[in-house]
Design a protein that fits this description.
The complex is a heterotetramer. By secondary structure, chain A is mostly helical. Chain A contains 23 helices and 6 strands. In chain A, a hairpin with a 6-residue loop joins strand 4 and strand 5. Chain B has a single domain, classed as 2-Layer Sandwich (Beta Polymerase, domain 2). Classes of the chains: A mainly alpha, B alpha/beta, C alpha/beta, D mainly alpha.
Chain lengths: 618, 171, 182, 296
């Protein structure tokens, strides 16, 4: 199964899905699931093999290559797995909506493009698949119309600037090294003066940073995620953000090479510490902004921005443990964030489109499986032991402390405590508390939505208890990138610097839960009562007015809000306003009266003559 | 000072009588029709604070007497604190007691009038919400009227609540 | 902690625990509540007897109904009593809950509290002093000792009668019956 | 031997925690000029609560309270108790730091499921207060970790015993002062008792907890007090070789905290946060800065 056939299946699948949808919905759905499943299985089978295929020899003497190695395998596997689950999730979600044929085609196309990005062997194919991914994402974000169009436009403008920067980068590399193949470019760059390194880093880095929504480039993410249809925002937040990190990883440790990257930048302030600080800022501000949100998906979107900070923090430290932490956090974030978005989608689907956290509540009584999924997702997000979030954050904290930068560790830990606040707000306002009158007839999530949720829950807990499984793959990546190897055991890392013994902690947690359950079982059992039998100072519980969810953490909200105006977003908006004014001014230049145009030509010629007479440059 | 007020009252309202008792408290008697205008007059005159509205049941004269207690709240002249409130009384027949509500002049009268309606049965015409203030149940004879026999009511309502079971504390 | 106390502890620790840890619901039902603060502060210190005010009925096992019980308060008293966990004791405080006291002919207060909720003990007096409260507590100890403080059992057995009496006086109650007749 | 330690350490923590509860009630009574209950009164209360039949609001209601108590047990396992530390192998301080977020999370599930606004308000206050005292607490812990360049508690205690006089330990005094300022908040005692305020929000998250649930909540509160103090004694006061000296040090700390508890009224939640984020954070930040500067 070589790579271009794989890519052919993926892209072809999306086209065929679009054609099939005109015939019958059921065949199209089955076909879509079949294609994504086949792609996922094919990528899984490619584990451990490095192969290279030339996709098309033509372009200016530089062949388009497809290559698979440990890094691209891990990213490709995540892309196809999450993609397949989101297609299964969107079966019921998109049923009965108009233009869902177009939706499925675009969804499959995005997954194919992401596969192409991870498998691309040279910069040009990387750019091509990057472009396909960008505009198909735009089409999907603005699928719902209305405010989604504005969100899509914002995303599109920012990702176009990124792509243009990348195009300039590709041309720069082609001109200076007249080859685009990544390994040869890396070899050429290693001997190039630092100016080249800076140029390549800034140009490509801008594109990847915009896509991965790091702090200065994050304003497009919250509107895009909350307006996109839920299955796609699960893919968008779970995997598409990670394409930016894939690019950064390839850029930092493959193109520029590890030791060049670490030595880049000034002596007192090396580049990787700047990245670390940016990562820390990305953790802190969005965490508190997420707390103020009252829309479920916007809260999760801001949380994605915050968690991206952890990945950058882990990757940018350049130690084996840091890389392992960053990569594992990428993987775990993909799983539990997709899970949380699916939960939000299921609740939105069942309650008829309600996403406002102030008008939901008590849904645990109606949707228990969705609550379990939300609980596991929230635990993963916070990093509770027995979930993969714990292991990845643990590795990141350990690197931060052992590398001797306690202030970044402080910001990361505060980020975790902020995460608890908004993830509990998500859990409490939707599932716990009093069930309002209008939601009493809500049915549990349909079967086709529960399957992906249960699968993701299993993955979150499995990788939490046995982190060895993902860590072996990440260790291989570390070795290929020139990091020291971590000897990985199924239950954690054995090497002395990074000892994390998940088995030890998990048994401690499980045993103490058992002991606590024994103590609980020893006491007299309690009577089961419903929500009407609650303490209300001697009065009967007022129906529908006994839920505390408006302004959930109000004291903190009042204290923190003054500092949380998103200046970066304001800056971009100011930029757009300024730009429209300037172009409005220019518009007046064309008065539409031919005499003026003749005058402009004459004036220009006279200016030229004047310059010639004075300095005679020609 | 209250003499000039009494003279002016006589001049303006014809069927009004007023007297001053031993410690200088002025009491004015008016008929139900002109109560609101007297209240307005007194308010402009300086009695800007309605302390309370109460009611007396003259059962043998077959009348319910509504008493408005007025006082000067911010009286600069009266500094020694010896403000003596004045009374405005009016009588309403016991059978179908109806009186105009004084909320437009003194909004503070709203709860007082609800209480009197609930406990004496006087219907205040023009009162926004004459809902019960304290009592939870309906009484055919309003409880504060003199012909309301509490003992018979207690015997009838609380008397026939049977004791529960043959517990050791059954009284 | 002399010898026979120890034996009692060993024989029936649960009963002894219920005796020496009476958390009272801090619910001011009538004029009697003015006697509770002095009872729990420095001069009389009810904590020596293990009596503490509890924040919600869920935490408590003693319910002091202090003072006259008006119709509106009766509704809250029934609700609070029903929300207390099972081995619970209720004490009528003052003469008004016993037989109406000085409000014996008032149209607005109920006369015999034990016709609406079971009462385990009474403290006579028109606002008994804190010492009277402690005498009542010690009597309650003996009642618990002899298993005579069975108010909650009586409530469970005669619930339909109690409920009928409550509905006769208060009309429709906003909460369903505590022990539905299955 | 290891199994014995695994059983002994939580048991000791339980006994000491409940002893602390009894001591605090006796101590408060003595301050208020009254005799107060016998020392073993909390034990009686807990036994009484266990034998009371209360009310449950569902599976998650039970799961949450079990999770809370389990989290406190796990923390106790990782804390060295005067030379006795059952699970010192896997990175002690980070696990303790991380487990401290599990206890409020478990109680949050119980409070949320009890569908009572009092408990929801209580839980949101607990998280805000936790965020409040975490800022200085993290700075203190990071200062200690970077000073001894390890994240294992046992090594920190051993390091403190070996070279206590070097210049580098001076900044830790600042961290110690910061920790003292936030000690009542970590333990949930009076100036910061806003989470379980009995009068305002009818004891917050525990509004709906009855018999055995309330018993487990009080045991968890006792354990969290034990953890708060033993963390201070281990990190900033050199721990102890045998449990008795360790217990003595803890009693001294507990008396100090109780004085503060007896004297101060309850702060509102935003006053508490404003205090916690002002002076203790400043002192802890300076401590960490000095440690980093002097350290390398």
């Amino acid at each position: 199964m070589n790579l271009n056939i794989l890519l052919m299946i993926a892209v072809g699948g999306s086209v065929v899905t679009y054609l099939l949808s005109s015939i019958s919905e059921r065949i199209r759905d089955a076909f879509a699931i079949l294609v994504t499943l086949a792609v996922a299985v094919a990528v899984a089978m490619l584990y451990g093999r490095t192969s290279e295929v030339t996709l098309w020899a033509g372009f200016l003497g530089n062949p388009l290559l497809l290559r698979i190695g440990p890094i691209s395998w891990l990213f490709a596997m995540t892309v196809s797995a999450i993609g397949c689950l989101s297609v299964v999730f969107s079966l019921k979600y998109m049923r009965g909506r108009e233009r869902n044929g177009f939706y499925y085609a675009m969804l499959l196309l995005v997954q194919a493009a992401m596969l192409g990005v991870t498998l691309s062997g040279d910069l040009l194919s990387l750019f091509i698949f990057w472009e396909i991914m960008s505009w198909s994402t735009f089409l999907l974000i603005s699928f719902n119309g209305g405010t989604a169009l504005a969100a899509g436009m914002k995303y599109f403008v920012m990702s176009i600037t990124g792509s243009l920067a990348m195009l300039v980068g590709v041309v720069f590399v082609l001109v200076s090294f007249n080859t685009l193949e990544i390994s040869t470019v890396a070899f050429a760059l290693s001997s190039a003066p630092p100016g080249y390194l800076w140029a390549v880093f800034l140009l490509f880095g801008l594109a990847f940073a915009v896509k991965s929504a790091i702090w200065p480039f994050h304003p497009w993410l919250p509107p895009a995620h909350s307006e996109a249809p839920s299955p796609f925002s699960a893919v968008l937040s779970g995997v598409l953000i990670k394409m930016g990190f894939f690019g950064l990883l390839v850029l930092m440790y493959v193109l520029i090479g590890r030791n060049d990257f670490l030595s880049l930048g000034w002596e007192v302030l090396p580049l990787h510490t700047i990245l670390g600080v940016i990562g820390a800022v990305t953790i802190l501000l969005p965490t508190f902004i997420a707390l103020l949100q009252t829309d479920a998906k916007r809260l999760l979107a801001w949380s994605t921005v915050a968690q991206a900070g952890y990945i950058i923090l882990g990757i940018s430290f350049g130690t084996a443990l840091g890389l392992a932490g960053g990569m594992l956090h990428f993987l775990s974030h993909a799983t539990f964030k997709a899970l949380l978005f699916m939960v939000a989608g299921a609740v939105e689907y069942r309650t008829g489109g309600i996403r406002d956290l102030n008008s939901l509540g008590g849904l645990i009584k109606r949707m228990p499986v969705t609550f379990a999924a939300a609980l596991v997702g929230a635990c993963g997000l916070i990093g509770v032991p027995l979930t993969n979030g714990f292991v990845s954050k643990w590795l990141i904290y350990k690197t931060l402390i052992l590398e001797g930068s306690p202030f970044l560790a402080f910001v990361a830990l505060i980020g975790t405590w902020g995460t608890i606040l908004y993830s509990y707000k998500f859990l409490h306002n939707i599932f716990l508390g009093q069930l309002p009158q209008n939601l009493t007839s809500v049915e549990p999530a349909p079967f086709s939505m529960r399957v992906p949720m249960v699968v993701l829950m299993a993955v979150v807990v499995l990788f939490g208890v046995l982190p060895g499984i993902p860590l072996t793959v990440i260790d291989e990546i570390g070795v290929t990138l020139g990091f020291s190897a971590l000897d990985v055991a199924p239950w954690g890392i054995v090497s002395e610097s990074g000892v994390v013994n998940m088995l030890n902690i998990s048994t401690a947690v499980v045993v103490s839960v058992l002991v606590a359950w024994l103590i609980f079982w020893a006491g007299k059992s309690g009577e089961r009562v419903d929500q009407a039998d609650s303490y209300a100072a001697g009065a009967a519980v007022p129906e529908g007015r006994y839920q505390y969810s408006m302004h959930f953490c109000d004291p903190l909200r009042r204290m923190v809000t003054p500092w949380l105006t998103d200046r970066v977003d304001a800056f971009y908006m100011g930029l757009t306003v300024w730009f429209t004014d300037v172009s409005d001014g220019l518009r007046r230049f064309y008065t539409g009266y031919v005499g003026h145009y003749v005058m402009y030509v004459v004036l220009f010629l006279s200016a030229l003559i004047f310059v010639e007479l004075l300095w005679s440059p020609w | 000072m209250s003499d000039s007020l009494r003279d002016r009252l006589e001049v303006v309202f014809k069927d009004i009588s007023s007297e001053v008792d031993v410690d200088g408290r002025l009491t004015v008697h008016a008929n139900p029709a002109s109560v609101l205008s007297v209240l307005g007059f007194l308010k402009d005159d300086g009695y800007d604070y309605l302390v309370l509205v109460s009611c007396i049941d003259w059962i043998d004269e077959g009348a319910l007497e509504v008493v408005y207690v007025l006082s000067r709240y911010l009286d600069p002249a009266d500094t020694d604190g010896g403000r003596v409130p004045m009374l405005l009384k009016t009588r309403v027949p016991r059978e179908s007691p109806v009186l105009a509500s004084s909320i437009e002049i003194f909004p503070v009268a709203e709860p007082h009038e609800r209480e009197i309606h609930e406990l004496f049965g006087i219907r205040f015409y023009g009162h926004p919400r004459l809902t019960p203030l304290f009592l939870e149940r309906e009484y055919e004879v309003p409880p504060f009227r003199k012909d309301f026999d509490t003992r018979q009511y207690v015997e009838e309502v609380f008397g026939n609540v049977p004791p529960v079971g043959e517990g050791t504390q059954a009284l | 902690m002399d010898r026979n106390q120890l034996i009692k502890w060993i024989e029936a620790p649960a009963k002894m625990a219920h005796k020496y840890s009476l958390h009272a619901v801090y619910f001011c039902t009538g004029c009697g509540i003015i006697e509770i603060p002095p009872a729990i502060t420095a001069r009389w210190d009810a904590e020596r007897f293990g009596v503490l005010p509890a924040a919600t009925p869920r935490h408590a096992n003693l319910f002091l109904i202090t003072g006259y019980v008006s119709l509106k308060t009766l509704r809250a008293i029934i609700r609070t009593y029903e929300q207390m966990p099972e081995p619970k004791y209720s004490v009528g405080f003052g003469s008004c809950p016993i037989n109406g006291g000085m409000y014996w002919d008032s149209y607005n207060t109920i006369k015999h509290l034990d016709r609406y909720i079971p009462i385990d003990g009474w403290i006579a007096g028109c606002m008994p002093r804190p010492e009277a409260i402690f005498v009542a507590v010690t009597h309650l100890w003996t009642l618990i000792e002899k298993d005579m403080a069975d108010g909650y059992k009586r409530y469970r057995v005669h619930y339909s009668e109690y409920r009928a009496n409550q509905e006769r006086i208060l009309g429709a109650l906003e909460w369903p019956p505590l022990f539905p007749k299955e | 031997m290891q199994v014995l330690r695994l059983i002994l350490s939580p048991l000791a923590a339980l006994v000491i925690g409940i002893l602390f509860l009894g001591l605090s009630r006796k101590f408060m009574a003595r301050i208020q000029w009254r005799y107060g209950p016998p020392l073993y009164q909390p034990l009686i209360d807990i036994l009484r609560l266990f034998t009371q039949r209360s009310v449950s609001h569902g599976v998650v209601f039970d799961l949450g309270i079990i999770l809370t108590l389990a989290a406190s047990f796990v923390i106790v396992l990782f804390l060295p108790f005067g030379g006795l530390c059952p699970m010192s192998g896997s990175g002690g301080l980070l696990v303790v730091l991380y487990m401290m977020l599990l206890a409020p999370l478990g109680m949050a599930l119980t409070a949320g499921e009890s569908a009572n606004p009092n408990s929801s308000i209580g839980i949101s206050r607990w998280f805000i207060l936790a965020l409040g005292y975490e800022v200085p607490l993290l700075l203190v812990l990071l200062a200690v970790m970077t000073r001894y360049d390890t994240i294992s508690l046992v090594e920190i205690v051993a390091a403190q015993r070996s070279h206590t006089s070097s210049i580098a330990t001076f900044p830790l005094v600042l961290s110690g002062v910061a920790y003292l300022l936030i000690m009542p908040a970590v333990m949930g005692l009076r100036p910061f008792e806003v989470v379980q305020a009995p009068q305002e929000i009818s004891s917050g998250p525990m509004a709906e907890l009855g018999g055995r649930y309330l018993a487990m909540a009080t045991v968890q509160h006792a354990l969290s007090m034990f953890i708060g103090i033993s963390l201070f004694v281990n990190l900033l006061w050199g721990g102890a070789s045998n449990p008795l000296v360790f217990l003595l040090k803890m009693l001294v700390m507990f008396a100090l905290v109780l004085w503060v508890n007896a004297a101060f009224p309850r702060l509102r939640i935003d006053q508490a946060i404003r205090f916690l984020w002002r002076w203790p954070t400043f002192v802890a930040f300076v401590g960490l800065l000095l440690v980093v500067v002097i350290g390398d």
